Amino acid sequence: MVESGALERVDRGPRELSRLVDPALLHGPRLDRTWRFLRLDFTGIAFATLFFCWSLTPSLLPRDWLFQGLIGGINAAIGYTVGTAIGWLVRRYFLRRRSWWPLPEPWSTGLRVVVTVTCVVVSLVMLAYSAAWQRELAALMGAEGTTTTGYIRTGGLSLLVGAAIISVWRLLRELVRWIAARLIRRWHLAIPTATTVGILIVTVLFFLLVDGVLMRGIYAATNAAFSLQNSTTRDGAEQPLDPEKSGSPESLAPWDTLGYEGRNFVSRGLDADELTAANGTPAKDPIRVYAGLETAEDPDARMDIVIDELERTGAFSRKVLVVVPTTGTGWINPTAAQAIELVHNGDTALVASQYSFLPSWISFLADRDKAAEAGKKLIDRVHERWLQEPEATRPKLLVYGESLGTQAGEGAFDTLSDIRQTVDGVLWVGPPNSNRLWGQLIQRRDPGTPEVDPEYAAGLVVRFADDSADMVENTGEWLSPRILYVQHPSDPVVWWSPDLAFTRPDWLKEPPGEDRSPSMKWFPFVTFWQVSADLTNAAGVPDGHGHNYGTLVLDGWITVAQPEGWTPVDTERVRSALESLSGTEGPEK
After folding, report:
1. Which DSSP state fits 214?
2. pTM of the model
3. In what residue span(s) does the Alpha/beta-hydrolase N-terminal domain sit (predicted)?
4. pLDDT digits (tens, 9 = 90+) for 20-62
5. Domain coordinates of the chain in residue numbers?
6. Phi and psi at residue 132, in whole multiples of 5°?
7. How far, in Å, CA of 58 to CA of 515, rounded?
8. How far is CA 524 from CA 54, 528, 534, in A?
9. What is the DSSP letter of 515?
């Protein structure tokens, strides 16, 4: 009986194998096997077209044909997968029980031709509509729009991208089948068991390859590449001679250790003579303190040098001391730095420290915890030293952050009360959606206020604004110290979240903000990839839109710092000076 059962199990192996793998794929001619491998599912094609057309609808920012082609291809591949799964379920549990299925020729071929032609025509029509939507969105932001003929290229690129993704998926599927077939031959497993084991093996191998090899390899290569850039110096950036600057001959932070962005930060800006000319009253040379990754061996040693630099330059005797947690590469918005120095006529000290070589978008993916830790360490150490000064004479302590810098800054505080007990004001610009404190405030906003323009506790402690008018529109009491978030309705950095793949957010349920197209809708998976593409060009739009806040940071500074005797005339004078300086120091890195 045992031998008979064993023989029966052995004999059953080839039959099980033939059910798992199409015999034509195993034994048929090479051309036939190739055709069967490349053949498309027509339900999948229909859904791929649907998802592709959804991806052509407008999102937060204008997109050129190249980015739209990439996003369209990704979404078409997702749609193809969904359609294939639905088609399989319908055929297995509904159509197979119908006497008229499968359709006889020529009806079967005719249906496929109709589906294909319809999908092509619908895609072309939607491409024309999409080009018009992109021009409408560009006009809303004062940017140059695309042409319909140029945008048609999107279809071809999307086809290539989608085909590449589907090909990778099919290779993985064939690998599962190959593993399952050998498990059946060698171990005589049942088809469901062998297939499950095959899926598990391929899934583990795939994620080990992507996460353990590709991602780490890319991260290491990127880090090496940007560490090389960190050793270079921007054209026009020269070692400062003013003792008020880190990197000067008197500085404890040597010039060649400050990094690319640090050297740019301390070498630029306005000196006392330029500030005097801009404001019409005698000015001081602003203090700029900076520590690069190479300034000291570890974060604690860098903080020691930062404190020593603040003491050396006399920063604690200035009117305003601003702590600036940086973005990934150590970048500081030059407009924001110049704005606070112009507002206070140079009686200021700005302090920052680099924590990474990587650009913000990479740091966001790989170094978010590191950013928060670096921001907390910088703010805590400066605050600790600041408390040692006499309360009557110590400077006003402010915190500024932009983009990933807001996440670094938030890392120093647990609650709003913690902020108010530590500093004299906070300005955070373009906060990422993943910010912990920002997210809590948005979730707890006052009932009836929209997510894109929220109000928290009637604006008593913290406020949100997207333009200068919004900062003064609420005439209710605003306690000091003030906390202000500045965010545009069209900023993908603020609104991007992995949740977009499956959940429609409140900001897409509510009436759109002033610079977001009312034609933008939420679609599962599609909107996530649309806004992901917007991230790559977040700052590549005109001032006042997307992640480009321009001179709006000036209005934020005035609102938070509340300089004595300040008038709207002063604001416009400083804005004019900032606009004449804009574009001279490069975009965010």
Report:
1. I
2. 0.84
3. 56-269
4. 444 444 444 443 444 455 577 889 999 999 999 999 999 999 9
5. 2-226, 242-421+549-581
6. -65, -40
7. 12
8. 10, 8, 17
9. T
